[in-house]
UniProtKB/TrEMBL annotation:
InterPro entries: MPAB/Lcp_cat_dom
Domain ER-bound oxygenase mpaB/mpaB'/Rubber oxygenase catalytic: start-end pairs: 13-217
Transmembrane region(s): none
Name of the protein: ER-bound oxygenase mpaB/mpaB'/Rubber oxygenase catalytic domain-containing protein
Source superkingdom: Bacteria
One Gene Ontology term of the molecular function aspect: oxidoreductase activity
Any matching Pfam family: MPAB_Lcp_cat
Amino acid sequence: MSLGFFSPDSITWRVHSDPSMFVGGIRALLQQALHPEAMAGVAAHSNFREDAWGRLERTGDYVATLTFASKEKAEKLAARVRGVHEKLKLDDQRLLLWVHMAMVDSFLDTALRSGLVLSERERDQYLEEMVIFARLVGIDEEKVPRSVAQLDKYFIDIKDELYASDDAKRAALFIALPPLPPLLRFGTPIAPLWGGITSIAAASLPKWAKSLYAWPTLPGQD
């Protein structure tokens, strides 16, 4: 069996095996959308509206492959993604780093909220391990935060670049209320179930992100 970038005893395996990952993926999309340049690139080059489910599934497959598959499979998939980014001119280091850090923050935070127990050292180790994800997507390793403290500083430093653009608000609404065939919407529990999942994802966003969307922060929420 070919070895992957992460071993079964890695923190990345523990976080990415947690059932909260689906919620974390949705939260990541909401958080990533708050950078107007990154969101403009998605709006211009992605079929997000027509294939939101497919995009979420492909993102999940990408994360799973880089986490659990062999190095050969992970590198092959990452090279394909880099090629797409280069072709569409979506390879700006600053924006790639934003997307990466919003994803890492979302995965770690939702896992902790769901009950995964990690020490401060293990949380920092997760940030350190996820530098591999950043490198594979084409980000300069020297620019990537490697601890929770560095992650927090990164969000402070970038906050002036963030706001909820019209594209971001439309994407958030689309995520919360995706178009469903009438049979699914009215004949199954998928609509209320999906609404509950997206509500949890939105509620788990940091205060500054909810503030940018002008969403309320309820008592007891971070």
